[in-house]
Automatic annotation (TrEMBL):
GO terms for biological process: negative regulation of translation; translation. Gene3D superfamilies: Ribosomal protein L13. Coiled coil: none annotated. PANTHER family: LARGE RIBOSOMAL SUBUNIT PROTEIN UL13, RIBOSOMAL PROTEIN L13. One of its GO terms (molecular function) is structural constituent of ribosome. It holds the Pfam family Ribosomal_L13. InterPro entries: Ribosomal_uL13, Ribosomal_uL13_euk/arc, Ribosomal_uL13_sf. GO terms for cellular component: cytosolic large ribosomal subunit. This is 50S ribosomal protein L13. It comes from Candidatus Syntropharchaeum caldarium. Keywords: Ribonucleoprotein, Ribosomal protein.
């Protein structure tokens, strides 16, 4: 097993699922440039469905259905987060 470091020296990684996703998206952006910083500032990541969108019916895209994959293996971000030590309630 690999040593992940310590709390004092790092590496520092997020544990909450919303912060894991935000950090992952940050890695895909040029966040050191102005347009990347602006894009990251516009990004909103929530756990669950926000209140303003809770009454809207979700749209299902048939071409993007996971059942069409040859292998149906996936991992939920919440499960990864719990393995890293996060304590949260899904809504």
């Amino acid at each position: 097993m690999r040593n992940k470091g310590s709390k004092e020296k790092g590496p520092y990684f997020p544990r909450m699922p919303d912060q894991i996703l935000k950090r992952t998206i940050r890695g895909m952006l040029p966040y050191k440039r102005k347009r990347g910083r602006d894009a990251l500032a516009r990004l909103r990541v929530c756990i669950g469905v926000p209140e303003e969108y809770s009454d809207i019916q979700p749209v299902t895209i048939e071409e993007a259905d996971a059942g069409r994959l040859g292998t149906y293996k996936f991992t939920r971000l919440g499960d990864i987060s719990r393995k890293l030590g996060a304590k949260f309630e899904e809504s």
